[in-house]
Write a structure and sequence with these properties.
The chain is α+β, with helices and mostly antiparallel strands and 450 residues long. It has 14 helices and 18 strands. Among the domains are: 151 residues, no CATH class; 88 residues, Roll (Pdz3 Domain); 72 residues, Roll (Pdz3 Domain).
Length: 450
């Protein structure tokens, strides 16, 4: 059921983004009296026919069989359909190539514009409806914070409480803010409260590469430190088979006391694939249970996370949410640009951070959660806008570069050159997509076998 939920969320989000993106091209084309021959969700390349199609006026609307995007086919335009027969004929008034350069430019940037505005709007509506959830740093002082091993190796200790990133106060347990400051902002000094005193730690110069290359999720990079109570067991997994029950409190690992979940997690990674003795307290009665760890060092349980601290939500009026949504979207966009810059500098691994539809699908919650769904959709909308603006032929950004050149110089790029550029760009994108899919298949399915 979890997989079905993720797949449904993925296709709903993808369909929404594609349709609105293509509508951003379709609407201005119609306004400028340019003929649109096709409007498709997904691709309908041969040898298979479209799953559904309907002719309405001069436009054929349809759903293709290949769910990797969508398109509008505009008369007189060199695009990914590679249909260049009409370009051999004299230009007609309703064709894209007959329109002034400024009109063609508006048509081409329409999709990106819609995606940006959509991302801003969704973020704004989330702030207005849900508010902004956060855990105040003051709420985690009882147990402290738990850190991934990459931060432990930097000098942080389990139970520390982060109080500053550089000279900025860290008032909320916000892993995203930590990643933004350290990976994108090059912050290298952090302050923690340890045993009642403040300690300043200097992070290594390659900390950004370490964080990004090891595929560390934000939730595991920094998290509240909590005791290990069992909230749920996965059917057929080692914990259930060993007799562990919901509500059990795990307090020891091979005789070693482990008051907190992060201690269990660290030890389990060392003993993965082996049978270990867990000390358990059930209804105030201590007992020992032998449990075989999986090859990933897990036992198939969900840890109880609620009840230890209060989660706050910052509420927004609609007048505050609208500019707040734009601010969230713009910060997300600038972070993507910074991340791209770090990749070009070699500070972030390209191979380790490139993903396909599999990586995108894993962003959604296994259980249908509208807050997570809309947050992912808003992020994807802005990423789609950013990626489409890259100056690669076959993407909107490639066309925009040629059109800006035409506006500045007054010289139009020839149809033959456009055809060759789009063909090269299309195969470049196809190669990148196949490479990204291969990386995902290796990371999520094959790597564990070797």
């Amino acid at each position: 059921m979890d997989t079905i939920s993720i797949v449904c969320q993925f296709f709903l989000s993808l369909s929404l983004l594609i349709v609105l993106h293509e509508l951003g091209h379709f609407a201005p084309a119609k306004w400028f009296k340019t003929r649109v021959e096709k409007f498709y969700l997904f691709f309908d390349f041969a040898p298979f026919n479209a799953l559904w199609k309907k002719q309405k006026g001069e436009t054929e609307y349809g759903i293709g069989w290949l769910p990797l995007g969508g398109y509008v086919k505009i008369s007189g335009m060199v695009d990914e359909s590679m249909d260049t027969e009409q370009l051999k004929l004299p230009a007609q008034p309703w064709e894209f190539r007959s329109k002034p350069a400024w009109q063609r430019l508006i048509i081409m940037i329409g999709g990106v514009t819609v995606n940006l505005l959509l991302g801003f709007f969704i973020y704004a509506m989330m702030l207005w409806y849900f508010g902004k959830a956060f855990v105040p740093t003051s709420e985690v002082k009882q147990y402290g914070m738990a850190f991934d091993s990459v931060l432990i190796h930097q000098g942080l200790q389990q139970g520390d409480v982060l109080t500053k990133l550089g000279d900025q106060d860290f008032n909320r347990l916000d892993p995203a803010a930590f990643v933004e400051a350290v990976v994108l902002g090059n912050t290298r000094q952090v302050t923690v409260r340890r045993s009642g005193a403040d300690t300043t730690i200097t992070l290594s110069d390659d900390i950004a590469m370490q964080i990004t290359s090891q595929h560390i999720s934000k939730t595991s990079l920094i998290a509240p430190r909590i005791p290990f109570f069992i909230a749920q067991l996965a059917p057929g997994k080692p914990a259930e088979k060993a007799g562990i029950q919901k509500g059990d409190h795990i307090v020891a690992f091979n005789g070693q006391p482990i008051p907190y979940f992060d201690q269990f997690s660290a030890l389990a990674k060392q003993f993965k694939g082996q049978t270990v003795a867990l000390g358990i307290v059930r209804n105030n009665e201590p007992m020992n249970v032998n449990v075989p760890l999986s090859e990933q060092g897990t036992i198939g349980v969900v840890t109880k996370t609620d009840g230890y601290f209060n989660i706050s939500r910052e509420k927004y009026a609609i007048t505050e949410a609208l500019p707040g949504g734009v601010k969230m979207g713009w910060e997300f966009l600038t972070n993507q640009v910074k991340a791209f810059g770090q990749m070009f500098k070699g500070n972030i691994s390209v191979k380790d951070n490139l993903g396909s539809v599999i990586s995108i699908g894993k962003l959604f919650s296994p259980e249908w959660n509208w807050e997570v769904f809309w947050n992912v959709t808003a992020s994807l909308s802005i990423i789609l806008a950013f990626m489409n603006l890259l100056p690669i032929p076959a993407l909107d950004g490639g066309y925009v570069v040629f059109l800006i050149w035409e506006v500045i110089t007054g010289r139009k790029v020839s149809d033959k050159f456009m055809e060759r550029a789009v063909t090269a760009g299309f195969f470049l994108l196809l190669t990148l997509m196949v490479f990204a899919l291969g990386l995902d298949v290796w990371r999520h399915f094959l790597e564990k076998l070797f």
